[in-house]
Design goal:
214 residues, alpha/beta, Rossmann fold, two-stranded antiparallel sheet, 9 helices, 34% helix
Length: 214
Amino acid sequence: MTHIGILGTGRVGTTLAGKLAAAGHHVTLGGRGPEAAATRAPVPSPQIAFADQRTTARTADIVINATPGDSSLERLADLREELVGKILIDVSNATTDDGDGLPGDLCYPGSSLAEKLQTALPDTHVVKTLNTMLFMVMTAPETLSTPPTAYLSGDDEHAKRTVTALLGDLGWQPEQVEDLGGITTARATEAMILVVPHILRRHGFKPFAVSLTR
């Protein structure tokens, strides 16, 4: 059993928490305070605890960034000491919104949130994944008619192997995981977010993923 800390108590964070807890991991949901985290909890589970984000980062073995991407860099840079030596799984996309609240542009064109996090957290192993799909697909890839793809970007091979195993606990098969290489490749998958608002405007909020088919 791994102790996993999830920073962010929105739909992404709570969905991941429920599935990881069901897989047998001990999960801490980190919000602005433990009370705020608890109010956004998934189905109650003895495997899920609640804490502020600093405590969550300090006590977990693996940390997942599910905070809003446009503020993630500032939030996590402030947790640099707590994240030393740990794997940080970044599932967020840093975008600015259009008038309808959907992503309109990238916050870091020519770079990526994952790269910025790795620079700000040099003693942390950042791995980018699960950022090319709607949140419900992250924990239920089998629900799509076409097998989806979970892309991986990161500089540390051991960290990526660990994350790949964790993806298996979320329902991802080995052949659905595509390792793109180093952390700089995250700028490619983060740019894929720009197709999302156009799909949502045409088809509504239905599960989908930007996938690789052969």
